[in-house]
Amino acid sequence: MADCRADHSGTPLSPFMSAQGWFLAVALATAPALASPTPRSPSKTLLQRGAELYTLKCLACHGSDGSGDGEAAYLLYPKPRDLRRGSYRITSTWDATPTDQDLYATITRGMPGSAMPSWAHLPESDRWALVHYIKSLSKRPLLVPPSKAPDLEEGDDGEGVIEAPREPADTREGRARGAVHFAQNCESCHGPFGQGDGPRVETLEDASGYPIRPRDLTTGVFKGDPSPASIYRRIVGGIADTPMPAHPHLIGDDAWDLVHFVRSLSSDELRERAEMRRIELLCSRVETLPDHPDAGAWRDIPGATLHLMPLWWRYSRPEYVKVQAAHDGKSMAILLAWADETHDEMAVRPQDFRDAAAVQFATTQDPPFFAMGTKGDFVNIWMWKSDRQADLAGFHDIDTQYPNTGIDSYPNLQRSPYEQPMRHAATLEADATFITAWGAGNIVADPTLRSAAEDLRAQGFGTLKARPMADQAVEASGVYKTGSYRVVLRRELKGKGREAVDLKPGRKVPAAFAIWNGSAGDRDGKKSVTIWQDFVLAE
């Protein structure tokens, strides 16, 4: 892969990216196969398989009947598609009726710029099963008529698949003409430089009444396939349920000139970086396990850079997390590194939120839904929190934020009345009598806990729970320097207690990652995540 230290115009990327040229993706996976997939007929067996896969992979967002009201829907922006309507945004037709190939391509690629992940790792037959099951949820027939171009003089709309004429050469003169078409047709929404900041931005809504922002075309993040032919179809045919209109008057060379101009606003590298990939992450075997984020041993341990997608989409976000891992046959250490312009280590005031990071392991080889697991199918989560690390360092955030707060006094049952008769309840480090959350087993309130990490488990939305205190075995430490975090999480390979992942040399385990940016208001389900990756522990 080409060096990604600067964008197409020579402008440096984030300081974290530009300062470390080795912070590059490890291309262990090939691009999703979108071209000419082998069609499958909607047999009864295929539809049954599609229903099973939909329940496992799609129901949490799209809902049981496809209405877009799944348990996770309130956390997501853009909102999940209402599959019952049979109207789709990324299609190759004039009336937004998807072809089978359109649905297959979206399932395979996902939709960068949203929380719709790539399912390219599923077998081709499974993706076709999902295509036909999703079609069965539509309340209108998804029939694509023969292709017919619109007749502008008669006012007749086009029908069927939008047939793109042969693409001319991409020339400087053509892009100049495209810039004129952009100013006339696109600038009011996308802005003069394509950054999604045109004068109409604040007034735009989708068909459901939700606010919608035009795409920032300079980022290379295209919800649909960024190939020239796909962009051509979206320009001339528009995007259903959005303010993006059709431009049939541009059919032909005018549309191609606009395509080339739009693509020139980003680059192949930027567009590639937005794609989600499932890859193999190597956990190297070493003699001595590094125990600090800045340990020199990390320089010799290979890593991979993973694309992060915010569940609530925004352009200002952590784009990548670099993952390195090693084990010594007994314990494993994982180093996570990501860029963050702010160091948010307090979450006391209502308006403050912490920075955090987590790694999620499936406890079976066939992983459940990548967001928090599925009922009866647990995931084990190791979560580092910046505010917990600050507490361990002696930074008492409550006293700092509210220095004049009233303090109740409690007898310290662990001290002689002559030695220390009264103490502030928050400093009772040996007796949980007067700290009810601690007494009830809440690890967040336990002042004796000496790790900045929490060992958690979940089996679906709303089920996240700390594992028992006796089984809290994850250690963590983090460093914030020059606009970036480096966090190490360590644990013995053998899981402690129920619902803990067991890690063994020579085995593969599915893992996913999440980053919270406190200054952006990230908390709970508002975060940036990866899809499942394959963690491989070296022999």
What structural class do you assign from the helix and strand content?
Answer: alpha+beta
Beta-strand content estimate: 15-25%
Distance from first to last alpha carbon: 28 Å
Mean pLDDT: 87
Secondary structure elements and pairings:
Blueprint: H1 15-19, H2 44-57, H3 59-62, H4 100-109, H5 124-136, H6 172-185, H7 187-190, H8 228-237, H9 253-264, H10 268-273, E1 280-285, E2 303-307, E3 309-310, E4 320-327, E5 331-339, E6 356-362, E7 379-385, H11 386-392, H12 397-401, E8 409-411, E9 422-424, H13 436-439, E10 453-458, E11 465-466, E12 475-481, E13 484-492, E14 508-516, E15 528-529, E16 533-537
Parallel strand pairs: 1-4, 1-16
Antiparallel strand pairs: 2-4, 3-15, 4-5, 5-13, 6-7, 6-14, 7-10, 8-9, 10-11, 12-13, 14-15, 14-16
Helix pairs in contact: 2-5, 4-5, 6-9, 8-9
What does this structure look like?
- The chain has helices at 15-19, 44-57, 59-62, 100-109, 124-136, 172-185, 187-190, 228-237, 253-264, 268-273, 386-392, 397-401, 436-439, and strands at residues 280-285, 303-307, 309-310, 320-327, 331-339, 356-362, 379-385, 409-411, 422-424, 453-458, 465-466, 475-481, 484-492, 508-516, 528-529, 533-537.
- It is of the alpha+beta class and 539 residues long.
- It has three domains: 29-136, Orthogonal Bundle (Cytochrome Bc1 Complex, Chain D, domain 2); 172-273, Cytochrome Bc1 Complex, Chain D, domain 2 (Orthogonal Bundle); 280-394 and 454-537, Immunoglobulin-like (Sandwich), CATH 2.60.40.
- Strands 1, 2, 3, 4, 5, 6, 7, 10, 11, 12, 13, 14, 15 and 16 form a 14-stranded mixed β-sheet that branches. The protein has a two-stranded antiparallel sheet with strand order 8-9.
- Strand 4 (320-327) and strand 5 (331-339) form a beta hairpin.
- It is globular and about 90 Å long.
- The two termini are 28 Å apart.
- Residues 1-35 have low confidence and may be disordered.
